Amino acid sequence: MEIPAIVGGGLIVIGVGIGIGGIGRGAMEAIGRQPDAYGKIQTAMLIGAALVEGIGFAAMFVL
Amino acid sequence: MTVVRSRFFIFILLVISHFDVYSNELEKDIQELEKEIKEYINHHVLDSYDFNLLSYTREDGSKFYFGIPLPVILWDEGLVIFSSSKFNHGKTIAKSGTNYYKLYHGNIYKTDSSGKIYYDKDNHVQNNSPLDFSITKGVVSIIFVSIIMFLLFRNLANSYKKNGMMAKGIGRFFEPIVLYVRDEIAIPNIGEKHYKRYMSFLLTLFFFIWICNMIGLTPLGINVTGNIAVTFCLALLTFIITTVSGTKYYWKHIFWMPGMPLPMKIIMAPIELLGVIIKPFTLMIRLYANIMAGHIVMMTLISMIFIFRNWIGSSLSFMLAFFISIIEILVALLQAYIFTILSALYFGFAVEEEHDH
C-alpha cells in the first residue's frame, strides 16, 4: 500500500495509453489517406502497439 | 413519459440489488469464501505436482480431487523418484529411502521426519531444496501440446501426396496460416535468400504459443505460457539463434556502427549492446505478463460473481467476465503473432547483407 508505487503504476498506464493512442491516430490518418493499404497499416500498428505495451508490462512487473 | 419510466426502472433495479442472498453465519462464510477463491486462482495460475482437473469438498469435510498424481524426480546426491501422492496435497511428509521431503507453499524442501521448516530472521525458508526435475502439470501440458502439433502437421504434410497437392479436412484451416507465416512474417523480414532456415522455428513458435494460450482459457487450469520459465526458454531460443546466425556485419553494426561520426559510435556501442540483451528480455516479459494478467483478471471477475451475492452485482460481473474472455481469445492469437514477427525481425537483422546506408 505504498503511495509512490501506486502513483508510479498510474503514470505507467497513462504513458502506455498516450503511446498506443498516438500510434492509433497515425494509423487512422494513414488509412484515411490510402484506404487500399489497410492491411499493411494495421499490421504495422499492431507491432508498434505490442512494443509499447511490452515496455508497460515490463515496468508493471518491476513495480 | 419515457423519462419517468426510465427513472422508475432504475429505482426498481436499486431495490432489487439489496435483496442479498446471505446465509446466517456471515463472517465464517466470507472467510471460507476468501480461502476458496485463493485456492481457485492458485490452482489455475500456478504449477503443481499433480494434475487435478477439479476438486470439491465432500459432506464430511474431506476433499475429493479428480486427477492423477505425477512423478516427483529430485536430485539429492542420487536420483530420488516417487509419486506426488505421497505428499497428499501438502498434508503429509514424503519419505523416500532415508530422506524426508515436505511440500511447503509449492516448493519441495528436505526436512526430517517431523517436517520441521527452519526460518531465518526474514521469514525465508532455510531448508535445503534439492534439484527438481519433476514432471509437473506444465511439463505434461507441453508434452501433450507437442504431440498434438506433431501429429497434426505431419498428417497435413503427408496428405499433400495423397490428395493431389491439396489439403483436406482440418488441413484446409492450417494451410493459409502456414502460408501467411511464410509470406507476411518470414520473407519480408528475413529476405528471400535465407528465410527457409528459420521457417521451422517460426512455425513451431507461432503454433505452440497460440495453442498453449488457447488451452489456458479453458477451466482445466493448464497455464503454460503464463509461466515465466517457459517464456524465458522461448526468448532464450530466439536469442541463441540470432547470436549463432549473426554475420560479421551484424556485430559490426552493434559495436562499431558504420556511417556515424566517432563520438556517436562510442556512445552507441553500449546502448546497442544492452539492446542485444533487452530485446529478447522484453519478448519474455510481454508474453508472460499479457497471459498472466489475462488469467488473473478473468479468475477475479469470476470470483466476484460469488462475492456479490445479489442480482445485479453477480450478473454484471458475469457479463464482464464473458467479454473479457472474448478479448482474451484475441489476445492469444495476437501475442503469438507478435512474438513470431519480432523474432523474425531479429533474425532479419542478424542475417542482413552488407549494403550502403
Short description:
The complex is a heterodimer of chains A (63) and B (357). Chain A has 63 residues and is mostly helical. In chain A, 89% of the residues lie in helices and 0% in strands.
Task: Report what the structure shows.
The complex is a heterodimer of chains A (63) and B (357). By secondary structure, chain A is mostly helical. Chain A has one domain. Chain A has two helices and no strands. The radius of gyration of chain A is 15 Å and the shape is elongated. The two termini of chain A are 12 Å apart. Chain B is mostly helical and 357 residues long. Chain B folds into two domains: 86 residues, no CATH class; 213 residues, no CATH class. Chain B is 60% helix and 11% strand. Chain B contains nine helices and eight strands. In chain B, the strands form three sheets. A three-stranded antiparallel β-sheet of chain B has the order 4-3-8, with no helix packed on it. In chain B, helix 2 crosses helix 8 and helix 3 packs across helix 5. Chain B starts with a helix and ends in a 7-residue tail after the last helix. Classes of the chains: A mainly alpha (63), B mainly alpha (357). The interface between A and B is medium-sized, with 12 and 16 residues.
Largest sheet of chain A: none
Q: Taking Cα atoms only, what radius of gyration of chain B do you get, to the nearest Å? A: 27 Å
Given the helix and strand composition of chain A, which structural class is it?
A: mainly alpha
Strand content of chain B: 5-15%
How many structural domains does the protein architecture of chain A include? 1
Overall strand count of chain B: 8
Q: What sort of overall outline of chain A do the alpha carbons produce when their principal axes are compared?
A: elongated
State the secondary-structure class of chain B.
mainly alpha
Q: Can you tell me the overall shape of chain B? A: globular
Largest Cβ-defined interface: A-B, 12 and 16 residues
Element-level helix/strand string of chain A:
HH
Helical stretch tally of chain A: 2
By DSSP (H or I, 4+ residues per run), the number of helices of chain B equals 9
Give Rg of chain A in angstroms.
Answer: 15 Å
Count the E strands of chain A.
0
